[in-house]
Design brief:
Number of helices: 4
Number of strands: 10
Helix content: 10-25%
Strand order of the largest sheet: 1-2-3-5-4
Radius of gyration: 21 Å
Order of helices and strands: EEEHEEHEHEEEHE
Strand content: 35-45%
Length: 162
């Protein structure tokens, strides 16, 4: 479940004096209470902050009037994005200028990593030429890189492969 932590209360267990949390977690459909027991809290604590946008995985309990989520795992959107993205495709019109290609090279070089990048150049009649960039320009998936690419070529020119 993805959403934002709107409220968080960190407390300790009665038995072992271990830290745990009770979270109000909101998405576009409403709010859900999330209970994070001590073992999960120790692993997830770095992600659990008020106003943080996270993805939480766990088990739903329907025992009470309102469902609760018992959290097992949490990750930031950046981490989820990095795990799921397998490649980036960037489209250009047939006549991409040298300055734009150099800016793209610098942008890709500034985010080195294992992910392949494919460049597609348009031709008349809807056909395209595809070029897979060399491994020296493979990248690490990040929201910062995506923002830079969107600024450089526009959002409609980028496809994310998952």
């Amino acid at each position: 479940m993805g959403g934002i932590i709107s409220r968080m209360k960190v407390t300790t267990t009665k038995s072992g004096n271990e830290r745990m949390a009770i979270i109000a977690f909101e998405d576009f459909d409403g709010s859900t209470e999330v209970v994070v027991f001590p073992k999960a809290f120790a692993q997830m604590e770095k992600h659990l902050k008020p106003d943080a946008i996270v993805v939480i995985r766990g088990k739903i309990s329907l025992r009470e009037e309102r469902p609760k989520l018992f959290a097992d795992e949490a990750a930031s959107l950046e981490e989820i994005w990095a795990r799921r993205v397998r490649g980036i495709q960037i489209r250009f019109p047939s006549a991409a200028d040298r300055a734009m290609l150099e800016s793209l090279r610098q942008t890709l070089a500034g985010s080195p990593g294992p992910m392949p990048v494919e460049l597609c150049f348009g031709k008349g009649g809807g056909s395209r030429s595809r070029i897979l960039v060399g491994s020296t320009l493979h990248v690490t998936a990040s929201m910062d890189l995506l923002k830079q690419l969107v600024t450089l070529v526009g959002p409609e020119q980028i496809s994310i492969k998952t």
